[in-house]
Amino acid sequence: MEEYPEELRTPPVSLVSLVGCPELHSTISTYLHSEQPPINTLALPDFSKISVLSRSKKETLDSGQPGGILKRDWLLKHRTRSPAVVAALFGSDDVSGDPAQWLQVCTELENLKAVVRGRNIKLTVVVVQSFDKDEVSEDRMIALRKRAEIDSKYLLTFVQKSSSDLKHSLNRLGSIVAELANTYYRDEGRRVKTCIEKKSFSSVDLNIRYCFKVAVYAEFRRDWGEALRFYEDAYRALREIIGTSTRLPAIQRLVEIKSVAEQLHFKASTILLHGGKIIEAIAWFRQHHAAYKKLIGAPEVIFLHWEWMSRQFLVFAELLETSSAVIPSNTSLPLVTKDNKPLTESEFNPAYYYQLAAHYLREKKCCLELALSASEAVAEIESSADSVIPSVYVGQFARLLEQGDALVMQNLTDAEYVLYALAEGKRFQDSFEIIALLKKSFESYSNLKAQRMASYCSCQMAREYFSVGKFDNAKELFDGVASLYRKEGWTTLLWDVLGYLRECSKRLGSVKDFIEYSLEMAALPISSGDEVQSPIHKGEYGPAGCASLPQRERIYSEVFGIMKGESGLTSNEGNVTLNVTPERPIRLEIDLVSPLRVAFLASVAFHDQVAKPGASIFFTLSLISQLPQPVEIDQLEVKFNQSECNFTIASAQKAPISATSIGKTGARVVTAPVLTVVTNKWLRLTYDVTSELSGKLECKSVIARLGPLFTICCQAESPASMNDLPLWKFEDHVETFPTRDPALAFSGQKFIQVDEPDPQVDLVLGASGPALVGERFMLPVTIVSKGHEIHSGELKINLVDARRGAALGSPREMEPISTDSLHVELLGVSRPDGDDEPQTGQDNIWKIQHSFGLLSVPFVNLGGSWSCKLEIKWHRPKPVMLYVSLGYLPTSNGSTIQKVHAHKSLQIEGKTAIMIGHRFMLPFRRNPLLLSKIKVAPNSNQSTTLALNETSILIVSAKNCTEVPLRLVSMSIEMDENDIGKSCTVRQRDESQKDHALLVPGEEFRKVFSVIPKIHSPNLAMGTVCFTWKRDSGLDKQSDSNITEAGIITRHKLPDVNVEMAPLVVSLECPPHTILGIPFTCYVKIQNQTEFLQEVKYLIADSQSFLLSGSHNDMVSVLPKSEHILGYKLVPLASGSQQLPRITVTAVRYSAELSLPQATSTVFVFPSEPHFKMGNLKEKVTEIVTTGA
Amino acid sequence: MIVCIAVVGHQNNPLYLQSFTEADDALKLHHIVHCSLDVIDERVNNPKKTGSTLNETYLGLLYPTENYKVYGYLTNTKVKFILVTTHLDVRDADVRNFFRRFHSAYVDAVSNPFHVPGKKITSQTFAERVSTIVKSFGLSSAV
């Protein structure tokens, strides 16, 4: 598109001429140019220059038979030299000045009119007002208008006093000029159109020219519809004269018609695409393509036709790429053109057109080469190009001759023209043009993810590079293409590409690449195809020719000749010689993804999955090749990850060669009767190896040596995980298993696990029942040597949660590693000699962590033993797996021998030893009124409430939950340090309780404390019960358990209690027992502890067992801080344990009832005076009775 | 005239490719068939844009090259049939009809118990049947 002149590429712009007042020209030009649509100006500084506007003589002479269809510079003329409007600018001074000035104005105007009228150019007169002067008089203005013979609206005054005035004037001028320009182009168009309608033209050529002109005038007016219509008319008319016109010699005639058609087509396509009519544009292009495709022209200039075709595609591609038109997405495919032909997506894609442009350019290149080779007069070609220039008509060429001073155009003959065209054609580097086009197409397809189309483009690009001798570039591109064809199995295409690659590497002198590509080609699955190649399509096939089996065999023998060093290959192009020399032996690597797997594949399968060290391990080595002829291998080297196992298989026939090369390595050599790999037939070899080392034994690679200079290193593959052969997997050919045993073909692996030797050491973990939480649990570990001495032994200890199998401690506690955060902890290891410190100076390992321990074991003799004790502490009840493993060397010397390992594990339960409970009780026959107990909310989880300054009883119990007897050491309540003695008093009730009590399993131990709260507090800390105990191991073993001597402390935090003041306290005083029929007194004390007067109701219920004296119910007032005593005399009427009459006290203020618990209000009635033997007890009893009284 | 007919498998590998031209342009036809796979991919991946229903096996005109037109057909097992023709005015119905007959021939060929799915079709009977179908292309338009 760039080679078109600009006036053709861009829509036409109206041209206006300014005459006079040169100082204003730049302002007006700038303004008009920025108008929408823009207007170009042709500025003439003064009126003497107006002659340029007049019709030149040549133009006026132009009549009769035209010399061509379109004039080359007609468009340019209308854009730069032939204005539509002339604006005559006169200064107001001149207009309103003295008669001489006025006369001058009139003369200039007359001259201008004369020029303008000849070409129908429109005229407008502008009177430029000076800054300081007044307006021009009315009379002068009328006179001026009459002189100019223009409508009054085309005479305007240009005021520039202020910027707004200037802007206004410019606006007016702009609109008038635009209007006049439009009128001019319309009139011109109409004039030409009448010519067409009246058919008043002498030839069809003129018809085309007129149609073109009308269309261009319409374009000036931006009437795209009309423009398109007339371009199409012109195009159609042009189509008709093909073959009929005889004005020029045939070749040049066709060239001219095609050039004009190209222009018309370009204009029409541009208008269609800019109008967004993409479907119409494509249909138009198709029609254009179909119409001219067959117009090849004379055989000697066919290349011109292909060049022209290529340009059509290229220009349309560029138009499509730059146009804003998008593919209509809402319409559904298949899109159909007006004449009902389906469109495909690719036709909307510029890449398609670029690709075809490249295709035609390639065609051109071939034809041009042919034409050049046919014409022998090279010198003639060179000279013929001189002085030939494009003539005045589009698509015509002429020779420029000097005749004296004048230059004369002379028409060419066809023969001359052909020579000229050949000379021109030679100048261009078509290959690079083709590559550039293909690259554009390639990029576009790549963006669309159309990788195959893109590959096709890059394949063509590479061919072009190949043809110009840029083998590096070609090879790179071909490599990319080959990988796609390999992946998708397009053998024929791959063959072709590989043929190019082979040739490229040959030209580049890369022997290794050449051999690789050759081997791959020789192993391709091509079995059919005939050798004969028709000479017409020589260009179709690459250097490898047509894919066929004989061709494969030829390539095979060629490459093997080179590999064996028998023959070198001289590149026919030049100095590069391919051969293999002893200085540069060739080694090919074939890995799991290499395309050369088809040429050579090695599979290794061990017959077993595990093996004992030192035992023979059998495996099958299988080789397969798809090369067309049997491959004879001199020797095979098998490489393992354990280099001691490597060995070599030598062919029996070629023993002398192998013997020399192996002698120095000293590795094992075995011979095989035959080492020939036949096409598509597994060569199976079974051998054994012996490994002393435990661990994984893996076959790494198999190296085949073919001749002295060539080796192929195949990475070994497991039959179980072997991929299908690329390309061959789509072939319908016989497939066999790599091993004789079909099961092994599915499960065989190229590695085997070699066990480690069995340990001959006993590892004993002496477990003794479950561990108790809190204690330091001792676990003896004993190592007994039974057949191995233990050298540099190492004991690893691991504690693992039995349930989760993970580390100990709950996840949220994992972060801060402290003693408390671990549920179970390995505290240490004690040695039998009691020395549990690591011995310094020796490099003994001694590491103990929370759940992991590592310690070294000293040398143990054959039959000897060593033991230690693990100390483990449980913080929470939890089962734990203990893993102990011993690694050692059975002999003292040599680091080559691997360590032997013995493992042992044990699950140990951790159990809670002691369950501690507690209970609060009220004091005997005393009941404080606690307000919080009355107003107990139904759902509130209230803590225990105690009365302030009242004694309460606390009973703490500890139960042995284990299955072993425990010995109690002590039990006490510890207060928090800062609360001691202040908040409450906790005292041990009875000191006489003996410590060191034995608790058998399930037994409960109780201890009573009295509590007197001293502080009024809703949550008073009560402290912690500390229970110290130890395992009861019997008296005789007391000394043995010196560690646990201190005892284990189990703590139990008492809950906080609510302490409040009791407003009333009711207590009952009554003897514990009495005698039938003998009266006794019973007191109910109501103690008011508040500052208020308390009204108290009381009610006493009758009892059958007692005779009662005193008021049954009454209300009394108890004074503040005082006590009211109700006294009753009772006579027991029945003997035995009797319930006292029930007394209920109601505090009116709190409307709360208080009564003593049933259990405490009983008394024992003896039938008669008892006679106790124990005198002192009797004394005591009477004492109580007396005090009660 | 039909110049080439191809069957392409799941991995876009050629299963059967037969050209019916005198000229030795197999390589070119291979390229054309291979490139047309891109168009099929595009059509299959953007079914909305093509507007065809999901059950439509006939893909229509895939793309025109300078001398040929390429038509596509996708079986319900995602095997692709590609037809290359030099006819400039091919009736859609003819192509549909051709593909239908070709499909049944293909189904018969792969139903052979000795045929391994995913491998190239080497059956002689299939080749003969295909050439019969190809020869009758366009002639049976009245049917």
Automatic annotation (TrEMBL), chain A:
Trafficking protein particle complex subunit domain: residues covered:
253-523
A Gene Ontology annotation in the biological process aspect, one of them, is: vesicle-mediated transport
Which PANTHER family does its entry note? FOIE GRAS, TRAFFICKING PROTEIN PARTICLE COMPLEX SUBUNIT 11
Keyword list (alphabetical) reads: ER-Golgi transport, Golgi apparatus, Transport
- Where does the UniProt annotation locate this protein? Golgi apparatus, cis-Golgi network
What gene, per UniProt, encodes this protein? LOC104606860
Organism the protein comes from = Nelumbo nucifera
Name the family the entry cites. Answer: Belongs to the TRAPPC11 family.
Please name the InterPro entries in this protein's record. Answer: TPC11, TRAPPC11_C
Instruction: Pinpoint the Trafficking protein particle complex subunit 11 C-terminal domain residues.
Output: 1088-1145
Name the chain's protein.
Trafficking protein particle complex subunit 11
Checking Pfam families in the record gives: Foie-gras_1, Gryzun-like
Instruction: Relate the protein's function as given in its record.
Output: Involved in endoplasmic reticulum to Golgi apparatus trafficking at a very early stage.
**Cellular component aspect of the GO annotation:** Golgi apparatus
> Is Transport given among the entry's keywords?
yes
Automatic annotation (TrEMBL), chain B:
Q: Does the keyword Manganese apply?
A: no
State the source organism's domain of life: Eukaryota
List cellular component terms (GO).
cytoplasm; endoplasmic reticulum; Golgi apparatus; nucleus; TRAPP complex
Instruction: Give the UniProt keywords, A-Z.
Output: Endoplasmic reticulum, ER-Golgi transport, Golgi apparatus, Transport
Task: Say yes or no: keyword Transport present.
Answer: yes
Gene Ontology biological process terms, A to Z: endoplasmic reticulum to Golgi vesicle-mediated transport
Q: Where is this protein localized, as stated in its record?
A: Endoplasmic reticulum; Golgi apparatus, cis-Golgi network; Golgi apparatus
Instruction: Name the principal localization, coarsely classed.
Output: endoplasmic reticulum
Signal peptide as annotated in the record: none
A Pfam family of the record is Sedlin_N
Question: What family, per the record?
Answer: Belongs to the TRAPP small subunits family. Sedlin subfamily.
| Subunit field text | Part of the multisubunit transport protein particle (TRAPP) complex.
Full protein name: Trafficking protein particle complex subunit
From the UniProt record, report the name of the gene that encodes this protein.
LOC104604281
